[in-house]
Amino acid sequence: MGFDRGLVITPGTERQLGACGLFRPSPSQRDELALPAGALSVKGADPDMLWVSFAELCSADRTAADYLLLAERFPAWVVDGIPSPSAESGASAADWQRFLALLDVLHGQDITPFLIAPGPLGRPLEVQQASDPGELAAVLSLIGGRLAMLRRIESDEQLADEQSAGC
């Protein structure tokens, strides 16, 4: 395992996930994890993998200390519902800064990320709508650098072409 074995999966169909050995947790697997910044609602938390939404993980209450504590417990993470980096996504500049902090922790701790986004990641955010467009552009550039380290699965067709190599 390790960060460089992670994937960005778009749009995250059941076929794509299954081919990569990922299966969405059932509602009965939901859990609340106690963290310094407050409880974190997760979709699944077994010893090998944490499954959590972008909204929960990058909310205003989260800190790098939370991510570090979770990194000690889980060698692989699935983060789903990652919005497209567009002005219409609803994600704030602060959300993207927390996502960058998360990616930095996952990279630094060599955690394998599986990042699921309904639309392509990597399109530039319309930074002119941000309060500090220069700072947001820098954050998005750093996120892009981290994401560039990961392999992308962007369609079922691409997956079919790569299945012989495995996810």
Polypeptide structure, described:
The protein contains six helices and eight strands. The protein is of the alpha/beta class. α4 (93-108) links the parallel β6 (76-80) and β7. α3 (64-73) runs parallel beside α4 (93-108) and α4 runs parallel beside α5 (133-147). The model is unreliable at 123-129 (pLDDT under 50).
Keywords:
8 strands, alpha/beta, two-stranded antiparallel ribbon, six-stranded mixed beta sheet, 6 helices, 167 residues
Question: What's the short story on this structure?
Answer:
The protein has 167 residues and is of the alpha/beta class. It contains six helices and eight strands.
Helix-strand blueprint:
Elements (H helix, E strand, L loop, with lengths): L6 E3 L4 H6 L11 E3 L6 E3 L1 E3 L2 E5 H4 L6 H10 L2 E5 L12 H16 L3 E5 L16 H15 L3 E3 L2 H7 L5
Parallel strand pairs: 1-7, 1-8, 5-6, 6-7
Antiparallel strand pairs: 2-3, 4-5
Helix pairs in contact: 3-4, 4-5
